[in-house]
Amino acid sequence: MIRLFRKREESPAVHPPVSAVVVAAGGSTRMGVPKQMIPLRGIPVIVRTLQALDRAGLVDEIVLVARQEDMLPFYTLCKQYEVGKVSAIVPGGATRQQSVAAGVAAARPNAAYYAIHDGARPLVRPSTVDAVIAAAVEGGAAAGAVPVKDTIKEADENGFIAGTLDRSRLWNVQTPQVFSAALYRRAMEQVGIGEENLTDDCQLVERLGHPVRLCRADYANIKITTPEDVAFAEAILRERGGE
To answer: Is 117 in contact with 23 (CB distance < 8 Å)?
Structure first.
């Protein structure tokens, strides 16, 4: 673990303490290069992600989960760009759930909520982060999401259409995904964080039977996965201007 900064002095609480856990421990197998280090208009992906969370008013600290070989480069970037809320960089595990568990273990003991976010979603707006946190405070669990635009088909084992899903009920789920700390720890204990690689953190809480509220996010909150995503992200930043 790398502890970056002395944690800020506690001020009178105006909201429950929130620790953001940024998961950036993947191997970037689909990109061929470490996607977190790819520059977007001159600023690395991981830095843009951290800056967005740093600007979110309801986030108190950020724990960054990284591959062992990325920890020192990430440390250098956090210092260079003065991302003040980053408190620690910790090594990830073999699965997403193990990586999140490592981040949770390094978070402040008094954290009331964990805001889990993909390191490769650099275009999230601070206002979106705060909105999802507020929704989780109301119900214990919430996730950023957007309604599906395309018609979704279910395929059979031979690649033929087996049915058409009701688009009006379908959402693309993004991050952040925010959970009560007590709820998420209970999910880790009861559901487990073994070798099964769940595709998102809501699934862990869903298996407890706890409802997760979908909070309207932003179609621009894309995950950098392929080279085409980099070009798309650059276009979004140009459209936003000044970023």
So the answer is: yes
